[in-house]
Amino acid sequence: MESSADRLARAAAQGREQEVRALLEAGVSPNTPNCFGRTPIQVMMMGNTQVARLLLLYGAEPNCKDPATLSRPVHDAAREGFLQTLVILHQAGARLDVFDARGRLPMDLAQEGGHRDVVQYLRAAGRNPQGSGPAGITCAQTPPVKALAARQEGQRSRVRLCFGEPQQGLAATHRASVSRCFANLPGGLISKLLGPVLQLAT
Fold first, then answer.
1. Which of 62, 87, 164, 200 is 20 to 30 A off residue 138, Cα-Cα?
2. Which Gene Ontology MF annotations are present (predicted)?
3. What number of other Cβ atoms are within 10 A of residue 172's Cβ?
């Protein structure tokens, strides 16, 4: 009989958001490994941001690593070019300055794959490689990002970001660090990254 951990890992791997949600709400831990020793966030469908958010919302560890390859979810997201998933992981505290067993950083994998938008984000986030959030702060606790204004500065469009009312336990340094990650990104990349959350003022 399939264990609940195996069911959650399989649902995450197949991108079945509703099943993932139901299992998590039923109390299945997102950090219990499946029969192959992998947690749901390690085997999840990387392109499904909703599954990633759900797992992190329920306490999935974003820095878990494969015992053989030392690869972490950020390595997988960078390798495959899933920018939004990478950002979600980073905002939940995932480190970007970590090497896999072959000595490669997420940046190396993004460059090898030709994922320019991922490379741009990783360069911009380079000053905060340990994740946007301090210990204990997950994306579930991160308030919505809102764009206050957009303006042209030379050939670059810069967006000043701010956050809603801080939730309990959210430090001001956390809000500032997220803003720094986006400060030097081209406007087009920011719009692609934040999607419907980002509303540029005219």
1. 200
2. cyclin-dependent protein serine/threonine kinase inhibitor activity; protein kinase binding
3. 9
In tens, the pLDDT along 5-43 reads 999 999 999 999 999 999 999 999 999 999 999 999 999
Q: What is the pLDDT of residue 126?
A: 77
What amino acid occupies position 142? T
Task: Check residue 131 and give its pLDDT.
Answer: 58
Contact (CB, 8 A) for 88 and 139: yes
Sorted by where each starts, the structural domains of the chain and their CATH numbers stand as 1-61 (1.25.40.20), 142-197 (no CATH)
Of 51, 63, 123, 114, nearest in space to 90 by CA? 63
Query: Which of left, alpha, beta for 147 (phi over 0: left; psi -120 to 50: alpha)?
Result: beta
Hey, what amino acid is at 42?
Q
Please answer whether residues 64 and 57 qualify as being in contact, where contact means their C-beta atoms are separated by less than 8 angstroms.
no
Element (H, E) at 152: strand 145-153
Taking only Cα atoms into account, the Rg of the chain, rounded to an integer number of angstroms, comes to: 17
